[in-house]
Q: What sequence folds into this?
């Protein structure tokens, strides 16, 4: 895909993520985009490893190494600009015209990058040191996060910013939708929206229901990726996750979703909570929900039954296909 250059103005505002107050308590709401941007927070990895429950190793979340040489790695962002894509509308580009991306496995509140190792080779983090806001970009949205190696990565409205190594030249947007988790950045830090040319999924509800030929009705996220529960987690009297450390790399936590941004999912117990690692996570019927790094495309159910502890989620929050206890 190609982009054509032009400046555009865009008013940026904080969008609060609401959650339904329920008997399982802890938090009546959350915000996936309400942090004070510019505050440095450690990227870090999650706490002690626990509850992995994975029968097989999942492929690296960000893709493999050697993914092309078009986008320079380690170079500063320079003056950010707004470009207009035929397919994606307004997107952020760096001073060299490279498309900038965000990763669904990251968090904006607090800012945290989940892309290290091979992932960071395929998706080079954008340094924060020389980034400035060009026309149409609210400079207050620019910030930084400290990565595990101590380097400072640029954030936009709290979201860590990346380039894509397979974008061969300025204007390419081949990273859009990769793995159902990587998306071009809009000028306000949100995912770039599709204008009908393909690739975008931002218009879909944050959580919805699809009918799988094998499992029946199951919950999916905004990108159409299957949502799972971990049987070792707890829902009552408050949500508790047992998926920490290496587990969360394979089973990314679903970020908070507004209750009015769902379709077909039971409203009772639809809320967010704060995990021990500081990440805000969504629940269905108070049970923490996840996606699976081994699912590469919408409709995949590779996580179903993994380790005998991971199962897709029904619209009422119950486990799908789990053995009766």
A:
């Amino acid at each position: 895909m190609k982009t054509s250059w032009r400046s555009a103005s865009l008013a940026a505002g904080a969008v609060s993520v609401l959650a339904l107050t329920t008997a399982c308590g802890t938090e009546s709401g959350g915000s996936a985009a309400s942090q004070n941007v510019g505050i440095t927070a450690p990227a870090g990895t999650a706490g002690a490893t626990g509850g992995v429950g994975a029968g097989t190793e999942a492929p690296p979340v960000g893709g493999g190494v050697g993914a092309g040489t078009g986008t320079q790695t380690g170079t500063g962002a320079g003056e950010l600009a707004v470009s207009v894509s035929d397919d994606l509308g307004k997107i952020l580009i760096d001073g060299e015209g490279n498309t900038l991306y965000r990763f669904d496995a990251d968090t904006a509140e607090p800012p945290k990058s989940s892309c290290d190792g091979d992932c960071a080779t395929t998706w080079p983090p954008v340094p924060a040191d020389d980034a400035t806001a060009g026309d149409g970009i609210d400079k207050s949205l620019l910030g930084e996060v400290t990565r595990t190696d101590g380097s400072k990565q640029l954030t936009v409205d709290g979201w860590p910013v990346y380039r894509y190594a397979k974008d061969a030249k300025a204007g390419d947007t081949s990273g859009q939708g990769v793995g159902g988790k990587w998306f071009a950045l809009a000028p306000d830090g949100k995912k770039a929206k599709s204008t009908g040319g393909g690739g975008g999924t931002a218009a879909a509800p944050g959580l919805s229901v699809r009918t799988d030929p094998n499992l029946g009705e199951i919950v999916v996220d905004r990108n159409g990726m299957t949502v799972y529960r971990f049987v070792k987690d707890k829902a009552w009297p408050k949500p508790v996750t047992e998926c920490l450390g290496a587990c969360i790399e394979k089973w990314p936590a679903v970020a908070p979703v507004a209750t009015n941004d769902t379709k077909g999912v039971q409203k009772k117990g639809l809320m967010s909570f704060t995990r021990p690692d500081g990440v805000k996570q969504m629940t269905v019927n108070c049970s923490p929900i996840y996606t699976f790094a081994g699912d590469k495309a919408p409709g995949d159910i590779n996580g179903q039954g993994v380790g005998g502890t991971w199962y897709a989620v029904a619209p009422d929050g119950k486990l799908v296909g789990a053995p009766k206890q």
